Predict the 3D structure of the following.
Amino acid sequence: DREPSPAEIAERSGLSVDKVTMLAQLSTRPASLEATIGNREQ
């Protein structure tokens, strides 16, 4: 068994390969505990 490639995911999901790659990076990138969340002006 293997993980599907970004191209395979894109084909099945209807998303672009770039979008699949970006989403995969977002899901694995750790967030800083000191990062601002949301809009501070509200």
About this structure: The CA atoms of residues 9 and 15 lie 8 Å apart. The chain has a mean pLDDT of 87. Helices lie at 6-13, 17-28.
